[in-house]
Amino acid sequence: MYKILIVEDDRVIAQALASHLGKWNYETKCVDDFKNIVDEFRRYDPQLVLLDIMLPFFNGFHWCQEIRKVSEVPIIFLSSANDNMNIVMAMNMGGDEFIEKPFDLNVVTAKVQAILRRSYSFQGTVNVMEYHGAILNLNDATLVNKEQKTELTKNEFRILQMLLENVGRIVSRDSIITRLWENDEFIDDNTLTVNVARLRKKLEQIGLTQMIRTKKGIGYMVEQ
Q: Could you tell me if 48 and 74 are in contact, meaning their C-beta atoms sit under 8 angstroms apart?
């Protein structure tokens, strides 16, 4: 499930966007603190931002520049100020798309879907994996769940990725060891046990308790 941060001070528009995108299985959050938008961005860690231009305190151009200092996340500008200068400014500040108000919610959704496909897929290879709202980023080996984020080691990442590729099925210990051994680092049964224990601890720290099940004498699995 992709997370979308909505930076819109008109509560009616913000809630309409959140409600509509929610019907398409996107997780959304509407910004409440317009003085500290970057702080909310960091805490929520979204995959896309919908950003109004006319905002309290500082405009959307300012916040786009601030977000660009810490992230390359796609940003879609929303504005009734649709003259060419504003469109050019939006793109020059780091925006990826410009949608004119008033807009059709279905058009916004279509543009969101298109940008997410371009940003997180390449030749059919998806760069994130989702499990019950938790997002595993395949680019930087991080896992995010309910605004909490943890960084995984190479082995922890490979174990979790393999289990998520086989949700609902048992993955044998031998199969996992073979996968981990691809990096030419010697992995034995005890090493696997230690890595799984460390991975479980990190999962628990971000609220994913009992995500990995042990099938005694066989291997591990993530249930559907």
A: yes
Return the DSSP state at 78.
E
Q: How many C-beta atoms surround the C-beta of residue 191 within 10 A?
A: 14
Cβ neighbours of residue 182 under 8 Å, at least 6 residues apart? none
In whole angstroms, what is the distance from residue 196 CA to residue 158 CA? 11
What is the pLDDT at residue 148? Answer: 87
If we measure between CA atoms, which residue out of 39, 37, 31 comes closest to residue 13?
31
Are the CB atoms for 3 and 26 separated by under 8 Å? yes
Domain with CATH 1.10.10.10 in the chain: 128-222
CATH number for the region 128-222 comes to: 1.10.10.10
The more confident residue out of 115 and 92 is 115
198-to-115, 190, 219 alpha-carbon distances in Å: 35, 13, 16
What are residue 52's DSSP bridge partners? Answer: 78
CATH of domain 3-123: 3.40.50.2300
The pLDDT of residue 81 is 66
Quote the CA–CA distance of 201 and 156 in Å, as a whole number: 11
DSSP for 86-149 reads: HHHHHHHTT-SEEEESS--HHHHHHHHHHHHHHHHEETTEESEEEETTEEEETTTTEEEETTEE
Q: What is the location of CATH 3.40.50.2300 in the chain?
A: 3-123
pTM of the model: 0.55
